[in-house]
Amino acid sequence: MLIPVILSGGTGTRLWPVSREAFPKPFMKLGGEFSLLQRTMARCAPLADGNQAAIVSNREYQFKTREEIAGLPAFKGIQCTQLLEPAGRNTAPAIAIAALWADSLAPDATLLVLPADHLIPDEAAFQAAARNAAQIAQDGSLVLFGIQPTGPETGFGYIEAGAPLGASDARRVVRFVEKPDATRAAMFLQTGNFVWNSGMFCFRAKAIIAALDAHAPDLMAQARLAWAASQRGATADRVELDATAFAACRDVSIDVAVMEKAGDVVVLPSRFGWSDIGSWKAVAEQFEADTDGNTTVGEAIFVNAHNTHVQSDDRLVAMVGVDNLLVIDTPDALLVASKDASQQVKDIVTRLKASGHEAARLHRTVARPWGTYTVLQEGARFKIKRIEVKSGQTLSLQMHHHRSEHWIVVSGTAKVTCDDRSFLVAANESTYIPIGTRHRLENPGVLDLVMIEVQCGDYLGEDDIVRFEDKYGRVG
Fold it and tell me: Which of 17, 202, 366, 402 shows its CA 20 to 30 Å from the CA of 35?
């Protein structure tokens, strides 16, 4: 049984301000209908011969991931299990957990492990390579997908390929090389026996478990503890890993933990076209350029501008007399960078986190399990939000120590609990929630509830919430 396992854990700091901690790179849409995660799901759906798949992600993303699964017609009929990490611990613990899950599901399980945030244009060629890899993996080999280099790229790791394995296209792995400088990358390209390390794998569940036992026994032992103590959803579509046991897993990649040490590792050179979308420069390369080399998502005007990429969803951007720029415009943050410095965008996120700036974590519009909220304006002692609650959804029973709230219903009907009272608030009506009052907001109607919230107080941070009850499991 071939089981796709999608690793959806990276925050994509090089793609700020669109990718943020609460809305990471896999959920990004690059000018199309579907997100990177959904494209990955669609690409591997025909390969799930047992109609089973798994997505490994942080538990904070479980509701958004569930929406992504439900919104993809190609995944209907596939039982997709979310393996929910309490914290990111790199690829080795994630793969260890996925292997334990798959081995409990089917003794003959073979895993196809894919990052959620890659682009592969030729899906048919990828699927043929994946089936070939699954066949090779049946003898216990750990198969990596190597990408034939198209240039002396310094942003990728390389794999030196050795002798071919019989009639197969696969070759023994001689060594792994971390991101080289330009001179070494050019040398690798010239020798012809180096491929890019794509971070995609195929192996039998029992084979990778045995390899982890042999080369990272401490990690595998801890993963078994986290798996044994995990909480399983009633519908078998969710496994929440034990926070204490999983946090004790060593933070290490599967390459370092296993692949660089094991003797049965092979690489399958592939030519299906691939991008890890690791920077805004890589994003720009996915779009057709005009005669001056400019690319755009959204509305833009270029006058005497060349080799420039603009992304703007909400307003017109005009570029005059500029070259080789990246301009990424979002409602609350604007990035202007040289294409040559696109890898340094992650340094902005580092500085934002160090200063405690919310733009490192949140967009102005924030998704929640019950709907969304958008910060319209904020200043000293006040914040104004637009809140949208989906039909039948309920916010937690909560209180705030530092702020009061005024709610004005724009459309729909709100059911409000305020201490020991419950009452309805209709469109064009309002209510007031004093500081320290237990309260809850529900949408009992069939239409979405839209309301304006005005917060007043000494501290208006999102962490000023004490939850008493929550249908989404966020208490504590």
Answer: 202
pLDDT of residue 225: 97
Q: How far is CA 96 from CA 22, 83, 188, 218, 462, in A?
A: 25, 11, 32, 12, 34
Q: Determine the pLDDT at residue 167.
A: 66
State the Cα–Cα distance between residues 256 and 271, nearest whole angstrom. 25
DSSP 8-state assignment for residue 389:
E
Does residue 236 register a pLDDT over 80?
A: no
**How many Cα atoms are found within 13 Å in the side-chain-facing hemisphere of 157?**
16
Whether residue 233 is predicted with pLDDT greater than 80 in this model: the reply is no
- What residues have CB less than 8 Å from 332, skipping those under 6 apart? 17, 359, 363, 364, 375
Compute CA distances 460 → 347, 372, 383, 435, whole Å. Answer: 27, 18, 7, 12
Q: From 207, 226, 334, 205, select the one nearest 280 (Cα to Cα).
A: 334
Strand partners, 52: 79
Is the link from the previous residue into 17 a cis peptide, with omega within 30 of 0? yes
Is 474 within a domain? no
Question: Is residue 359 in a domain?
Answer: no
244 and 133, same structural domain?
yes
Domain boundary among 219, 240, 270: 270
State whether 151 and 28 are in the same domain.
yes
pLDDT tens profile 103-150: 999 989 999 999 999 999 999 999 999 999 999 999 999 999 999 998
| Mean pLDDT of the 370-388 span | 96
**What whole-number distance in Å separates Cα of residue 97 and Cα of residue 328?**
37
Same-domain check for residues 75 and 24: yes
Out of 66-75, 130-139, 313-322, 346-355, which region has the weakest mean confidence (pLDDT)?
66-75
Domain match, 207 and 286 both: no
Q: Which of 164-168, 325-329, 428-432 has the lowest mean pLDDT?
A: 164-168
Do 244 and 325 lie in one domain? The reply is: no
Domain limits for position 427: 365-469
For residue 374, CA distances in Å to 171, 265, 316, 365, 389 come to: 52, 48, 21, 4, 12
The mean pLDDT of the chain is 94
AA identity, residue 17: P
Which residues, in sequence order, are bridge partners of residue 176? 159
Across the chain, how many H-helices and E-strands are there?
11, 26
Q: Is residue 109 part of a domain?
A: yes
Question: Are residues 109 and 21 part of one domain?
Answer: yes
Domain shared by 210 and 232, yes or no = yes
The count of structural domains within the chain is 3
Q: What is the DSSP letter of 394?
A: B
